[in-house]
Amino acid sequence: MSLQDMISRHPQVDDKTEELVLAARHAMLCSLFCTSCADADVAEDGDMQQCIRNCLDCADVCAATARLAVRRTAQNVEVLRAQLELCILACETCAAECEKHDNPHCTKCAEMCRECAEDCHKALPKVV
Length: 128
Fold this sequence. Notes:
Blueprint: H1 3-8, H2 18-43, H3 49-70, H4 77-98, H5 104-123
Helix pairs in contact: 2-3, 2-5, 3-4, 4-5
């Protein structure tokens, strides 16, 4: 079963949820990518403190974003919009830091963060 299929079964969901569901899905995945990247950063030589911090912050923000995005009963539009904007900021910050490091886990993390930020941007106009 897909996340879209699950959410489409909600009694208060309309047809305008596809972008928000995609953003929630990528935020959930991004949270896992960032957590994994932070863990791999610990094993790297050199000072990876800032990368670890940005990855862990991004992981937490993305996890919260995914949870808020799939809640469809009633609505708290202002909070959801702010959360999506925070997710974009956290993802862009994390991606910029990860792109400074020449290792495969940071490269993948940065790619996922950019995808997540893009999907959150696309979902913003649908949050009404």
